[in-house]
Amino acid sequence: MKVVAIVGSIRKESFNLKLAQHVQKRYADQFELEILSLRDLPMYDQDIELEAPQAVLDFKAKVKEADAVLWVTPEYNSSIPGVLGNAIDWLSRVDKVMNGKPSIIMGASMGVLGTVKAQMHLRDILFASGLNSPLLPMNEVYVGAAHEKFDAEGNLTDEATIKFLDVVIGNFQEWMKQYV
Ligand code: FNR
Question: How far is the CA of 75 from the centre of ligand 1 (A)?
């Protein structure tokens, strides 16, 4: 199984990037996870969507090739960050590469609610609106107080979170059997 991670933060020390890297490392023997950067994705522009820049084509091709998408996002202003919305806008148009492609969502924030509102919005965007991506039911991953759960090297050190992720990833792989 091949999965791509789309991380909603482009900062170097992003907790959400570190969370995606934890999944990449810990389950490396179970599935391949490629983390896609949103840093070089231009702003969506309907005028150029039919002749999109190479960075957009490359990004969409990676998503198209994947069996599933892992969305790992912070919460900005009670919703998803602009960079993530921008990526979704590109994915939702022309060849609609997300159509029917399964998704799983996670999020990390320094607050106690751990991206609840952002994930609510993301679920609605992915499932109910144009992307038509089936979502792993239940198994909601909210990593609150993220600054207390990673060490200085960026490793996830919170045992409860590590164990919970083992369960969620197990459920994800079981659920994915219907798609791969
Ligand atoms: C935030 N943050 C934040 N946190 C939260 O729980 N709810 C929110 O609505 C917001 N809004 C928000 C807006 C903006 C513009 C920034 C920069 C930050 C805090 C956010 O959760 C925190 O900075 C995370 O560490 C960002 O994720 P990464 O970059 O560490 O992955």
Answer: 5
3-state secondary structure of 8: coil
- Which residue among 10, 14, 35, 76 is best mutated to probe the pocket of ligand 1, counting the most ligand atoms within 8 A of its Cβ? 76
Determine the residue of 110, 120, 147 to mutate for testing ligand 1's pocket, defined as the one with the most ligand atoms within 8 A of the Cβ atom.
Answer: 110
Question: Is residue 136 a contact partner of residue 103, using CB atoms and an 8 Å limit?
Answer: yes
Neighbours of 164 (CB within 10 A): 14
CATH class, 2-176 region: alpha beta
The pLDDT assigned to 127 comes to 82
Enter the ipTM: 0.98
- Can you give the C-alpha Rg of the chain in angstroms? 15
pLDDT, position 130: 74
